[in-house]
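TL;DR need C-alpha coordinates for one chain.
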Amino acid sequence: MSPSVRPPALAASLFPASGTDAGGRDRLISALRERVPDAARDAVRQIERDLPVYVRAHDARCARTLAFSIEWAIGHFVDLLGDPDLPSAAVTEHFRRIGAAEARRGRSLEPLQAAFRIGAGVAIRRLTEGRNCWTPPSPRRPSYA
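>> reply
TL;DR here they are.
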Protein backbone atom coordinates (compact mmCIF):
# COMPACT_ATOMS: atom_id res chain seq x y z
CA MET A 1 0.00 0.00 0.00
CA SER A 2 1.51 3.30 -1.00
CA PRO A 3 1.56 6.17 1.49
CA SER A 4 -1.08 7.99 -0.53
CA VAL A 5 -3.55 5.10 -0.30
CA ARG A 6 -5.98 5.52 2.56
CA PRO A 7 -8.32 2.83 3.89
CA PRO A 8 -11.52 4.91 3.59
CA ALA A 9 -14.14 2.18 3.94
CA LEU A 10 -12.89 0.85 7.26
CA ALA A 11 -11.98 4.31 8.48
CA ALA A 12 -15.50 5.51 7.73
CA SER A 13 -17.01 2.59 9.64
CA LEU A 14 -14.75 3.13 12.65
CA PHE A 15 -14.79 6.89 12.91
CA PRO A 16 -18.17 8.57 13.27
CA ALA A 17 -18.81 11.42 10.85
CA SER A 18 -19.03 13.96 13.61
CA GLY A 19 -18.12 14.32 17.24
CA THR A 20 -14.69 12.68 16.97
CA ASP A 21 -11.90 14.92 18.14
CA ALA A 22 -8.22 14.09 17.73
CA GLY A 23 -8.08 12.69 21.27
CA GLY A 24 -11.01 10.39 20.59
CA ARG A 25 -9.45 9.22 17.38
CA ASP A 26 -6.15 8.56 19.18
CA ARG A 27 -7.95 6.53 21.86
CA LEU A 28 -9.68 4.46 19.18
CA ILE A 29 -6.42 3.84 17.30
CA SER A 30 -4.79 2.80 20.58
CA ALA A 31 -7.65 0.41 21.33
CA LEU A 32 -7.36 -1.08 17.84
CA ARG A 33 -3.60 -1.54 18.24
CA GLU A 34 -4.29 -3.63 21.34
CA ARG A 35 -6.37 -5.98 19.18
CA VAL A 36 -3.69 -6.49 16.52
CA PRO A 37 -1.91 -9.49 18.13
CA ASP A 38 -5.19 -11.40 18.63
CA ALA A 39 -6.37 -10.52 15.12
CA ALA A 40 -3.05 -11.75 13.72
CA ARG A 41 -3.24 -15.03 15.66
CA ASP A 42 -6.80 -15.58 14.44
CA ALA A 43 -5.75 -14.79 10.86
CA VAL A 44 -2.86 -17.29 11.04
CA ARG A 45 -5.19 -19.99 12.37
CA GLN A 46 -7.72 -19.33 9.62
CA ILE A 47 -5.04 -19.37 6.92
CA GLU A 48 -3.66 -22.65 8.26
CA ARG A 49 -7.18 -24.15 8.30
CA ASP A 50 -8.09 -22.96 4.82
CA LEU A 51 -4.69 -23.31 3.12
CA PRO A 52 -2.89 -26.46 4.28
CA VAL A 53 0.02 -25.51 2.01
CA TYR A 54 0.96 -23.00 4.73
CA VAL A 55 1.17 -25.72 7.36
CA ARG A 56 4.60 -27.02 6.47
CA ALA A 57 5.55 -29.86 8.78
CA HIS A 58 8.62 -29.15 10.89
CA ASP A 59 9.14 -25.73 9.29
CA ALA A 60 9.20 -23.36 12.24
CA ARG A 61 10.76 -20.63 10.08
CA CYS A 62 7.75 -20.61 7.76
CA ALA A 63 5.37 -20.44 10.73
CA ARG A 64 7.31 -17.53 12.27
CA THR A 65 7.42 -15.68 8.95
CA LEU A 66 3.69 -16.12 8.46
CA ALA A 67 2.85 -14.90 11.97
CA PHE A 68 5.29 -11.97 11.80
CA SER A 69 4.09 -10.90 8.35
CA ILE A 70 0.44 -10.97 9.26
CA GLU A 71 0.90 -9.06 12.49
CA TRP A 72 3.06 -6.46 10.73
CA ALA A 73 0.51 -5.98 7.95
CA ILE A 74 -2.44 -5.60 10.33
CA GLY A 75 -0.49 -3.32 12.65
CA HIS A 76 0.63 -1.17 9.74
CA PHE A 77 -2.95 -0.90 8.53
CA VAL A 78 -4.05 0.36 11.95
CA ASP A 79 -1.12 2.78 12.01
CA LEU A 80 -2.26 4.12 8.62
CA LEU A 81 -5.66 4.88 10.12
CA GLY A 82 -3.89 7.18 12.57
CA ASP A 83 -1.41 8.60 10.05
CA PRO A 84 -2.36 8.11 6.40
CA ASP A 85 0.99 9.56 5.31
CA LEU A 86 2.99 6.87 7.12
CA PRO A 87 5.50 5.29 4.70
CA SER A 88 4.64 1.79 3.54
CA ALA A 89 7.74 0.95 1.50
CA ALA A 90 9.21 -1.49 4.05
CA VAL A 91 5.96 -3.45 4.39
CA THR A 92 5.45 -3.50 0.63
CA GLU A 93 9.02 -4.69 0.02
CA HIS A 94 8.65 -7.43 2.65
CA PHE A 95 5.64 -8.90 0.87
CA ARG A 96 7.27 -8.43 -2.53
CA ARG A 97 10.21 -10.55 -1.30
CA ILE A 98 7.85 -13.24 -0.03
CA GLY A 99 6.12 -13.37 -3.41
CA ALA A 100 9.45 -13.50 -5.24
CA ALA A 101 10.63 -16.36 -3.00
CA GLU A 102 7.46 -18.32 -3.72
CA ALA A 103 7.90 -17.76 -7.46
CA ARG A 104 11.58 -18.81 -7.34
CA ARG A 105 10.54 -22.07 -5.70
CA GLY A 106 8.14 -22.66 -8.57
CA ARG A 107 5.06 -22.26 -6.42
CA SER A 108 1.90 -20.64 -7.66
CA LEU A 109 1.18 -17.22 -6.20
CA GLU A 110 -2.52 -18.03 -5.89
CA PRO A 111 -2.16 -19.55 -2.36
CA LEU A 112 -0.21 -16.47 -1.26
CA GLN A 113 -2.90 -14.18 -2.63
CA ALA A 114 -5.57 -16.34 -0.99
CA ALA A 115 -3.69 -16.05 2.31
CA PHE A 116 -3.72 -12.25 1.95
CA ARG A 117 -7.47 -12.26 1.32
CA ILE A 118 -8.15 -14.56 4.28
CA GLY A 119 -5.90 -12.58 6.60
CA ALA A 120 -7.45 -9.28 5.55
CA GLY A 121 -10.97 -10.64 6.09
CA VAL A 122 -10.16 -11.88 9.58
CA ALA A 123 -8.41 -8.61 10.44
CA ILE A 124 -11.37 -6.49 9.29
CA ARG A 125 -13.78 -8.60 11.32
CA ARG A 126 -11.63 -8.37 14.44
CA LEU A 127 -10.91 -4.65 14.06
CA THR A 128 -14.53 -3.75 13.52
CA GLU A 129 -15.38 -5.74 16.64
CA GLY A 130 -12.92 -3.35 18.26
CA ARG A 131 -15.23 -0.50 17.41
CA ASN A 132 -17.29 -1.45 20.45
CA CYS A 133 -14.39 -0.63 22.77
CA TRP A 134 -14.75 3.09 22.13
CA THR A 135 -17.79 5.29 22.35
CA PRO A 136 -17.58 8.78 20.92
CA PRO A 137 -18.39 11.54 23.37
CA SER A 138 -21.98 12.65 23.44
CA PRO A 139 -22.58 16.20 22.36
CA ARG A 140 -23.03 18.39 25.40
CA ARG A 141 -26.38 19.97 25.79
CA PRO A 142 -26.48 23.34 27.39
CA SER A 143 -28.18 23.39 30.74
CA TYR A 144 -30.49 26.30 31.16
CA ALA A 145 -31.46 27.50 34.57
